[in-house]
Amino acid sequence: MIEILIGVALGVILGTVSGLLPGIHANTLAGVLIAVQGALLALIGPIALGAALFAALITHTFVDSIPSTFLGVPDADTSLSVLPAHALCLEGNGEEAVRIAALGSACAILIAVPLSVLCYLFLPSIQPFIDWGIGIVIIAVIGYMIVTSEAPGWALALFLASGILGIFSLQYGYLSWHGIGGESAILMPLLSGLFGISVLATASQGKIPSQHYRGIGLEGGSIIRGSLLGTAAGLAVGWLPGLSNATANGVLASVIGYTKDRRMYILATSAANTSNAFIGLAALFAISRMRNGVMVALSSIPIPSPTGLFVAGVLAACAAYLITISFSTSARYLGGIHGKWLNGLVILFVIGTCIVITGPFGGLVLLLATMIGFVPPLVNVPRMYCMGAVMIPVILFSLGIAGF
Predict the structure, then answer these.
(1) Residue 38 contacts by C-beta under 8 Å, 6 or more apart in sequence?
(2) Is residue 78 assigned to a domain?
(3) Could you tell me if residue 8 is inside a domain?
(4) What value, to the nearest 5°, has the Cα angle with vertex 243 and ends 189 and 348?
(5) Domain for residue 303, yes or no?
(6) What pLDDT digit, counting tens, does each position of 344-372 carry?
(7) How many domains does the chain fold into?
(8) Residue 207 pairs with which residues in a beta bridge?
(9) Is 404 inside a domain boundary?
(10) Entry pTM
């Protein structure tokens, strides 16, 4: 237990740092830890290192709502939720948005942990049927979303254009510098361009309004429904092959709608983000599949018992909730800051980070993604359809048409 506690303390610190840095994903942190895992194994041992990796992932799922809300920069797990969260910040409700996200992640813990155990026990026996059907399910969902949109033609065009870029990015991801975060690091410039820079560059250039916390504007029924929907989405993308939280964001947008009920959408996507981490751990132990970079890192060390890692995750969640709530109060210091300069600094930081992590190829992907990201407001189509960058590669992968 002492080793687990040491690992949790280290993981919470690392997850907080990665969560606060705009655009940085937990996979990036895992890549750094893999690079120095020999020294860490000798220093703290495999149990503490395993606990640190999983605790960092859980902590990141809480804390990453802060840059998403206050700076408007997504990582691979907050690509769509950043839109309503940052919009609330621009209305003076940034602290509320962060608190809602933290509440969603906390509620997910209560549901996802027992569900992960059930999945571990019962789903492996029907895994072949699950693998076969996922592509068809995604096609049905996105087809419904496009047909029911206000401009189906533009929605389809945007979905296909972003999908082609997603295929290109993943197919040639080996051209990027992927020593940190693996080849999946190419998702950083891809999603930052579609949902980050393109939003910041066209955002309001005036001063950020004063931030005031007036309580969480969600009723108990909405909290329960959002938590259940988000946890279910996180469970699906955590277990099914080829999916990610970005996919969950798109599916939840079709059920809730990030423009119709922004607060419940933020809560649901945060619940999906955190529950995905737990179900991904269950998938690692049950069917030996690695859903993210942290699971790859865990598989490369003498892996601790699942019970110890689940305990580490729950402890990290408790600490991360308190840390996130504490940081949310910093919203009051944003009032009066000129949006033009803040957005410009954040854009420069994201561009620099993308190039450092993924190299010139990542810079090209970022440029192309940003160009596509400018289209939705011009044709009055929700930016949600840019999720084709993730969904189309997943469809092709699940149907056995292409591998990434």
Answers:
(1) none
(2) yes
(3) yes
(4) 15
(5) yes
(6) 887 888 888 788 878 899 899 999 999 99
(7) 1
(8) 338
(9) no
(10) 0.76
